[in-house]
Predict the structure.
Amino acid sequence: MAAPPTPAGAAGVNGTAGAAGTTLSPAVAAIRVPFVNRLAGIVLILPGVLWLALFFLAPLVIILVVSLGTRDAGGHITLANPGVQNYIQATRPEYLPAFANSLRYAGITTILSILIGYPIAYWISRFGGRQKILLLILVMLPFWTSYLIRTYAWMIILRDNGVLNSILQAVGLTNDPIVFLNTDFSVILGMTYGFLPFAILPLFVSIDRMDHHLVEAARDLFASGRAAFLHVTLPLTMPGIIAAALLTFIPAIGDYVTPDLLGGAQTTTIAKIVQVLFTSGRDWPYGSALGFLLMVVTLAGTLLALRTLRREVLA
Amino acid sequence: MNRGGNRWLTAFALLIYAFLFAPIVVLIVFSFNISRRNFVWLGFTTDWYPKLFANQSLTDALGVTLQVAAIAVVGSTILGSLLGLGLARLKFRGSGATETLILLPMVTPEIIMGISLLIFFAQLFGQNGSLGQIAIAHVTFCISYVAVTVRARAAGMDPRLEEAARDLGASARGAFWHVTLPLIAPAVAAGAMLAFALSFDDLVITSFNTGVGSTTLPVEIYSAIKLGVSPQINAISTIIVAVVSIALLIAWRLGAFRTERGSMVVEDAPPA
């Protein structure tokens, strides 16, 4: 999404997954709906559903259709010889690094976001006191404001004559500027910075919901601090960890802005190739095939996470 | 409580807060820097700000951005609020599928939504980047956020309030206008602010659906950034950060970031 998934999104994911284990709200429990209400229901639900079916679902189907097509001599899309040639082309060895990069960047970003986000979320929940909400807003607020601009800020900091190198040279740690920009380091830093807040929110929600008396009970029964964390806190907050992984991984794997601005020309990812194919490259059928593969990877990850989540909630 | 662990944790937390804010502070500070090359501090100036308004392509882009945002806010707020209300109040066959349909746009990578709408409009309607096309795209990705926000509020609302109004002789329509709507109004407003922030800020989906004469501000900034760092970009970025922060702050005060069970801890909320 515009800003990648958001607290509202986190709430949605948590809500759906949690629904199995929680009681239905009174409004939803009113199962017997009189006819008039049913009519009202159609008026309420139908416009939005139709809109999403037309402008969200239908375009997705079209991607799949176009991905089976080819370009004719004039560069137009043709479905004269539909087939999977674009998908076969996608498996050629020269595209492997792009797939590998996409998965590697998204994977490392997800892991880092959880490793950094968990202690922060825990700290806010346990020690935030009356300032809890404020501390959470402080984490979220700047990060809702333009992913593009935040990425740009890292360009100012990381480039050869940027802020970081100026500081390092001023304190004498290095004479020649260190190359930070256009490396794996800068891409992963930029992505982790960008998506960390989307990990912190679901982590906070699940840590905050946890009954802390359970940890105290474990300690009373002579569990060490570490054991109490590993055997009580961690399992109980696993739904939050899974949701956080999901909300970081999805925008990270589809992100082409960070690899483009902080990774430079030589860094390829699938999302970046798709972007080029649809703008300057103008090979839409092939771009659609790569896009479709990207979506399959994302959806598979989402389903896997949701299934694990459901199992955790029901367990 | 483990005091020592607490201290380390606090130190770590403060460090991360610094990490989170430092780039934004740097960005804002350097928007006031005299140096054109923008890497050493040469002195304070506000010159870059007026220069923005003399930049025709930037002001044009701002105009497009605001028009698109206006359509996106109105469209997604109406459709999303109705959806949210319907989902919270009615249990019907297919409500599970509807919920999934609302969640899907939130878990679909932006680039996929961008290219799918591009192909959709180009192949079916011969459209290639009109303002209307961008506006439709923005309505589409904003609906879910409004719906989720409104549903959370409506689900937390006591349905007996409406029943009481009906018992006291209100018509179904009267009960809706005088009871239900005022109760969900803050969530509707919050959803609208959220939609504004999302629309104003969107780069990825827009960049695939933009055309000649329909360049939005983020798209314009992106192409400027590709040419290199400049204090003008810092200045416009500072303004955007301010505008979006204010929109989100208002959305927050109106309760946009509450989860369904109100678990963003209503009882701990700072006094209004």
